[in-house]
Amino acid sequence: MNIEIYAQPTPNPNTLKFSVNRTLLQSGTADFPSAETAKGSPLAEELFSIGDVTGVFVGSNFISVTKTPESDWNLVVGKVVEKIRTTLASGVTLVANTTVSASNEGYIEQQIREILDQEIRPAVAMDGGDVTLHSYHNGIVTLHLRGACSHCPASAMTLKMGIEHRLKELIPEIQEVVQL
Q1: What integer best gives the mean pLDDT of the chain?
Q2: Domains of the chain, with CATH numbers?
Q3: Considering the entire predicted model, what is its pTM?
Q4: What residues have CB less than 8 Å from 131, skipping those under 6 apart?
């Protein structure tokens, strides 16, 4: 099967989403916010070797790549596509460690995680990002925005007007949603 890779813009001008016609991860996601965190994960290591790359986020069938603000996508995108294609074609395990959901949580945390998984994460993934629950304490939900969402200019609006609004609507105990 040919490896098809499609670059798509995200709301974050420094991040592109590269959709791939195959499954990259069976479950979970993998976030590499720096080259140091990519050790042992061949795909992320290859992408960081480009030099202009500052972040890599891997979902089930996409890779979000964040570049430095100074670099030009016209000069970077071809290198990214080639690194993805070469790494996928090699057949190596792409990612050493994926994120794992915590299972020791209370009822409200379970509700939050369910809403995130069913409603919010699929929408955010369309833009090359992800959102995960970091904590819930005394009515305050702390979320971790990753991939294209991590430094996106629209993330504050997405967090407050989208995610916070929906969570408060469904879970009255929630007072505020903040970003980690």
Answers
A1: 86
A2: 5-90 (3.30.1370.70), 107-179 (3.30.300.130)
A3: 0.67
A4: 116, 120, 121, 124, 143, 144, 145, 146, 149, 163
